[in-house]
Amino acid sequence: MSSPLVQRLRPFTETIFAEMSALASRTGAINLGQGFPDTDGPAAMLDIARMSIATGVNQYPPGPGIPALRQAISASRAADHGQQFDPDTDVLVTTGATEAIAAAMLAFVEPGDEVIALEPFYDSYQACIAMAQGVLRPVRLRQAEPGGRFALDPAELAAAVGPRTKLLLINSPHNPTGTVLEAAELQAIATLAIERDLIVVTDEVYEHLTYSGAVHTPLGTLPGMAERTVTISSAGKSFNVTGWKIGWACGPAPLVAAVRAAKQFLTYVSGAPFQPAVAHALMHEQQWVANLRSELESRRDLLCAGLSRAGFVVTRPQGTYFVVADFRPLLAPGEQLDGTAFCWSLPDRCGVVAVPQQVFYADQSAGAHLIRFAFCKQVAVIDAAVANLSRPVEGSQA
Ligand SMILES: *Cc1c(COP(=O)(O)O)cnc(C)c1O
Question: If you measure from the C-alpha of residue 30 to the centroid of ligand 1, how many angstroms do you get, rounded to a whole number?
């Protein structure tokens, strides 16, 4: 039987992450492919989740999220960025940032509407836009030179906006490039959104994970943006609990009500026992997050140094879990330029596993010379990867 899957989802059936994780366990190579932490979040937060289950917090919570969590979200946005969100109307708890993104696309995009997203993009964007029957218009972040920062060209962004453009789906700190959008880039996005009356959905799941003094400014804080912006966060990324799938969307009441309308028929509500735990973390674990940030920064530096010594041209990320490396200097003369083939050969070459950057592009030829490594792993794991990378390689057997 031919696949019963609808046409618009057929491009999204394969996942490279599973294949690369299988490659790692088969070869014993160190898995720096998928981006999830290998240590737990704050102990008190974990205790509250356990206690919640033990004390019967196990039935449907309120649809928008429990009041204590919505209040904690509102208070932390006010404390961190001076943003004002009414916990009753402007905050929605979701099943991870993933659901917030999906619900936003289903809420705002009519069939045929165009959505602009920064390419390369997080893997759920293309599929969610397709589910909403929208049309993706990629705007590519580009490097001025190998190893350079991936930057947004305002002219390219403006040129992508047309009569059917409905919304801008922005991600900063940006996975997979590690770029944190800077003032001029943010202002260009805001100016365009206001001029063309666009909704902006901004995925800020790495909002606390910025390095070397890079400053994350939420797009919703720019003048004229609060009334058109939905800001998405994730407890998974901020508190090392990616398996809990608690995220949230903040914005003006009409936009949040629209996202809530879609969310209620996707999952109805989200993880009851985790919500009081995340409320605690938002109110009391800022120091834990600050430590996480500085630990990740030093792991970034370890891995970047190891990759450079091994011959990669490394883009030093300003934020996120990821470092992007250009592998062209490691190719033998005549060897094909194909990130996926290179990743298959990486366990033999270097004893590590990465993912090809090209899977994050609509036009996969664009990222063919790049691969992505995750550094959200224990120092011992990064050390072992760096040791493998510095081992002289006697020809590839791949
Ligand atoms: C991990 C990630 C998400 C998904 O967050 P969850 O809370 O796990 O659903 C969304 N966007 C980006 C850019 C991510 O890296």
Answer: 23
Q: Is residue 175 in contact with ligand 1, taking CB distance under 6 Å?
A: yes
Name the residue of 201, 237, 248 to mutate for ligand 1: max ligand atoms within 8 A of Cβ: 237
Would you place residue 14 in the very low, low, confident or very high pLDDT band (cuts 50, 70, 90)? confident
CB of 319 closer than 6 angstroms to any ligand 1 atom? no
Radius of gyration of the chain (CA): 21
Q: How far is the CA of 234 from the centre of ligand 1 (A)?
A: 7
- Between the CA of 218 and the centroid of ligand 1 the distance, in Å, is 16
Query: What letter does residue 133 receive in the DSSP assignment?
Result: T
Q: Convert the pLDDT of each residue in 193-251 to its tens digit.
A: 999 999 999 999 999 999 999 999 999 999 999 999 999 999 999 999 999 999 999 99
User: Is the CB of 242 inside a 6 Å radius of any atom of ligand 1?
Assistant: yes
Evaluate the omega torsion of the peptide bond into residue 37 and state whether it is cis, within 30 degrees of 0. no
DSSP string of 200-250, one letter each residue: EEEE-TTTT-B-TT-----GGGSTTTGGGEEEEEEHHHHTT-TTT--EEEE
Asked whether the beta carbons of 343 and 354 are under 8 A apart, the reply is: yes
Give the Cα-Cα-Cα angle 150, 347, 329 (nearest 5 degrees): 45
Q: Atom of ligand 1 at shortest distance to CA of 95?
A: 9
Tell me how far apart the 2 most distant CA atoms of the chain are, in Å: 64
Instruction: Map residue 35 onto helix, strand or coil.
Output: coil
The Å distance, Cα 398 to ligand 1 centre, comes to 33
> pLDDT value at position 1?
75
Residue 377's SS3 state is coil
User: If you average pLDDT over residues 345-373, what whole number do you get?
Assistant: 94
